[in-house]
Specification:
single chain; 83 residues; mainly beta; ATP Synthase, domain 1; 70% strand
Length: 83
């Protein structure tokens, strides 16, 4: 499954992942391979990305939206900071 984490200034992350945890507006959630299509707003919080090779990256976002369909996930974040 692929993930792109994009801010208005740059593409922060792009690559193959095994899962992503996101701070949804109604609570945190996780997207795994073959997840049902979803569009959700995101609140201030932590995005945790586990790459296909098992490495973990975390970013703090101030809000945004996520769309996932057909094992492709796009996160449009207002702003990110490495943690």
């Amino acid at each position: 499954m692929t993930l792109e984490l994009i801010t208005p200034k740059k593409k922060v992350f792009s690559g193959e992942i095994s899962l992503v945890q996101l701070p949804g507006s109604s609570g945190s959630f996780e997207i795994l391979n073959n997840h049902a299509p979803i569009i959700s707003t995101l609140k201030h919080g932590i995005v945790r990305i586990v790459s296909a090779d098992g490495s973990v990256e975390t970013y703090q976002i101030t809000g945004g939206v996520v769309e996932a369909a057909d094992n492709k996930i796009i996160v449009l974040a207002d702003k990110t900071e490495d943690i």
